[in-house]
Write a structure and sequence with these properties.
Blueprint lengths: L6 E3 L18 H8 L3 E5 L2 E4 L1 H20 L3 E2 L5 E3 H7 L1 H4 L5 E4 L5 E4 L4 H11 L8 E10 L14 E11 L2 H21 L4 E5 L10 E8 L5 H4 E3 L11 H12 L7 E6 L5 E3 L20 E4 L6 H8 L7 E8 L2 E8 L6 H8 L4 E3 L2 H8 L16 E5 L8 E4 L5 E6 L9 E3 L17 E16 L3 H4 L2 E3 L5 E3 L1 E8 H12 E7 L5 E7 L10 E5 L5 H16 L4 E3 L6 H11 L3 E5 L7 E6 L5 E5 L3 H8 L2
Parallel strand pairs: 1-30, 4-8, 12-27, 17-19, 19-22, 29-30, 29-31
Antiparallel strand pairs: 2-3, 5-7, 6-7, 8-9, 9-26, 10-11, 11-23, 13-14, 13-23, 15-21, 16-17, 16-18, 20-21, 23-26, 24-25, 27-28, 31-32, 32-33
Helix pairs in contact: 1-13, 2-6, 2-13
Amino acid sequence: MSARMLFMKQSQLFIPTLREMPSDAQVISHALLVRAGYVRQVSAGIYAYLPLANRILEKLKTIMREELDKIGAAEFLAPALLSADLWRESGRYNTYGEDLYKLKNRDGSDFILGPTHEETVTALVRNEITSYKKLPMSIYQIQSKYRDEKRPRYGLLRGREFIMKDAYSFHATQESLDETYLDYKHAYEAIFERAGLDFKPIIADAGAMGGKDSQEFMAITLDRSDLNHWLILDKSIQSIDEIPTTVLKDIKVELSKWLIAGEDTVVYSDSGDYSANLEMASSLYQEVVNEVEFAELKKVLTPDAKTIREISHFLKVPVGQTIKSLVYNADGQLVLVLLHGGDELNEVKLKNYLGVDVLEAASEEEVFEKFSAHFGSLGPVGLSEEIRILADREVADIKNAVVGANEDGFHYLNVNLDRDFKVTEFADLRTVKEGEISPDGKGTLKFSRGIEIGHIFKLGTRYTESMGANVLDPNGKAIPIIMGCYGIGVSRLLSAVLEQYARITVEKTFKGDYKFAWSINLPASLAPYDVHLVPIAVKDETTMALTADLQKVLEAKGYSVLIDDRDERAGVKFADSDLIGLPVRVTIGKKAPEGIVELKIRKTGEVIEVSQSELVNTIDSLNK
């Protein structure tokens, strides 16, 4: 039921629906948000949330406030316009990147539009809290954030202005942070469950936020293969089997037009609890016992063969017998990275392992100066001990390998670890592949696309040390405050919901043809109105009297009601109703004089006739 108990006439509500999908949309959530009159773009990456979208956002905010109240978090509100001086203190003013909106006031002082508020809250606490006795403390806000995205796209999923719930906790001990971190994890799970989302909490990279432990919450986006998920059948169709194959083919074509939303790949076990972002995912490593005898080291000519595939083909050796050599510049130092020839480097793992701020592929000039060869001919044999060599764990299993000879156009055959080259350190540096064994040994890894909707971090003292935010401990010693940070992309949630609740409604016409159209099937917990009353003959007194009676009865029971009082054809009203996506549509039509209405259940497409006296009880039963 809605928190705001009121009704609204559709003629008075700003819902500018469109007949066709917008041509610039690439994902279905963006297309439907625009077509159904939920949002409008004001400029690139900046959107206005129209009344229906705003009501959903307010419901999401209410759910968040209720769950965060339970864990003792207090709401506050910080300014969006921030002094650059605080970001200089933390070091992020120059390192955050081009996404940071920078501006000056009339006096020439530097300001930014806040993309996040770690520095602001650290300064607030630094100036007000001096003793451990006032900790722990947890505060949160819900406000707009600003990031100058180079290429804003996918509607609300990547914009320049967006709504975010950001929370911050402050602690004197690591144990206290660990406890609050779990509180937020459970609160987030409750929030997303109440929002009706299919989501997974996954191991994640902290990225530019800093800190150590972090966990993302990903809304799973489905592929296009399961038509049973995507279709809502009209009352005239009993099952999907009745739909002609030509129509089903057209539906599949329509589905294929839209990109699968989500810029992240979620890796999860098909029979265990493991889940992680692809950037952080691991698989089970099992050492291979290889009793092959070491063969004699040989240098061979490999003209015009530079890639692993070319080398494998030219030398007629399997890819699994090759070692890939990559060179990276890590905070100004060159590092050689070795991988199994069939693997791809996971740069996030490498950067985290090295603990560096800047990691980038070395240039041709840097490589030639150090190795006397170019890319495609590099390898670990005969290198100076000053060069740091990192290798993925699986490199240790390769015997009689093929590597570059550090001479253009040449490779070594029968290269073996310890005999021919040394490795400074072994680590998990590869990108996992679907079908590998989960790192906990439970099941195999599966991939799916996901939309990041929440992220929690253990920041530690990343900000408090650089900004001098200390408290006195029980012994009177000054210690840096330990921090946690917890974010939810509120406006992103709106897109995530649409991605999961978009549907195609299929109906059979009176001529026996089949037609289909996109519709929205919002969960009851988020729908902007609970019930859509659709009187067909708005100039008929009996019809409108019954409509008014139903509206009063529904409101008395706590339901919010949208009344389509427009003088439009029934087809127009039904099409708009499907687009808007309210859970229940009540049509007041020809049987209005008998007190009988038609009730359509959005999520199933089921249509039933009920009497005026039974309407509320029927709707109540649907919400149980």
